[in-house]
Specification:
By secondary structure, this protein is α+β, with helices and mostly antiparallel strands. The protein contains four helices and four strands, in the order ααααββββ. Helix 1 runs antiparallel to helix 2 and helix 2 crosses helix 4. The radius of gyration is 23 Å and the shape is elongated.
């Protein structure tokens, strides 16, 4: 169970109650203002990340290898979208858990990420086989 969905609202209510207990209605106004500011900052960050991602092709990343090196389990989907500046290509059925997304770069390398409950659980890098060039020396002119 995701305790963050329960603990954050409880902490907000506790903050307002403590503010009322120690500072009266002025404390409630200050605590409520701080909570509203926190919500607005998070909302603004989310909108900015999605605005940047809307200008890029779905599932495209500059370097899949660099993305793979930066990823860590526990990252949120929003954090990964902010790093790639693009929405991932959805590979799993819509609204099914876990969600699987793929980001591919120009060389054909791709990173497949699995998210359970919005958190990164695993990621895998796929690199296409490299065609070896001929080792024969170039013809002399």
């Amino acid at each position: 169970m995701n305790f963050q969905k329960i603990l954050v609202p409880i902490a907000g209510v506790a903050l307002v109650l403590l503010a009322y207990r120690f500072y009266g209605w002025a404390g409630v106004a200050a605590a409520a203002g701080a909570l509203v500011m926190w919500v607005l900052l998070n909302f603004t960050r989310m909108m900015q990340v999605l605005r940047r991602a809307s200008t890029r092709p779905i599932g495209h990343v500059d370097s899949a290898v660099m993305l793979n090196a930066k990823l860590r389990p526990g990252f949120t989907l929003l954090h990964v979208v902010a790093m790639t500046r693009a929405l991932g290509q959805l590979l799993s059925p819509k609204d099914a858990q876990p969600e699987v997304f793929r980001w591919t770069d120009a060389s054909g390398s791709s990173v497949t990420c699995t998210f359970a409950g919005g958190k990164l659980t695993e990621h895998a890098l796929f690199r296409p086989p490299v065609m070896e060039e001929s080792t024969a020396p170039p013809p002399a002119a």
